């Protein structure tokens, strides 16, 4: 099953771009829906473009309250 506060990010694309990463970071700023924490699991983080990596870096270094990133 799935949990409302767990997001698993997967891609079939060769790379993950800036737009997709900005959308993800924006969603991560929201408060957890059900539990006390939200967890974001990004599979294939090695596919981030350099620009997308820079966008994600700030979110990972300074996450929103009660947010855990797993790359």
How large a portion of the residues is in β-strands, by DSSP E? 15-25%
Order of helices and strands: EHEHE
Contiguous uncertain segments of 5+ residues: none
The helix/strand class is: alpha/beta
Number of helices: 2
The end-to-end distance, rounded to whole angstroms, is 21 Å
Output the CATH topology: Rossmann fold
Overall helicity: 25-40%
Q: Please report the first level of CATH classification, the CATH class.
A: Alpha Beta
Report mean pLDDT, rounded to a whole number: 93
User: Which value, in Å, is the CA radius of gyration?
Assistant: 12 Å
Strand line-up in the sheet with most strands: 1-2-3
Apparent shape: globular
The total strand number stands at 3
In the CATH hierarchy, the architecture is: 3-Layer(aba) Sandwich
CATH superfamily: P-loop containing nucleotide triphosphate hydrolases
Number of domains: 1
Main beta sheet strand tally, sense and closure: 3 strands, parallel
Quick rundown:
This protein is 32% helix and 18% strand. The chain is α/β, with parallel strands linked by helices. A three-stranded parallel β-sheet has the order 1-2-3, with no helix packed on it.
Description:
The structure is a single chain. With 71 residues, the protein is of the alpha/beta class. It has one domain (6-70): P-loop containing nucleotide triphosphate hydrolases (Rossmann fold, 3-Layer(aba) Sandwich). Helix content is 32%, strand content 18%. It is built from two helices and three strands, in the order βαβαβ. Strands 1-2-3 form a three-stranded parallel sheet, with no helix packed on it. Strand 2, helix 2 and strand 3 (67-70) form a beta-alpha-beta unit. Helix 1 (18-28) packs parallel to helix 2 (50-61). The longest helix has 12 residues, at 50-61. The protein is globular.
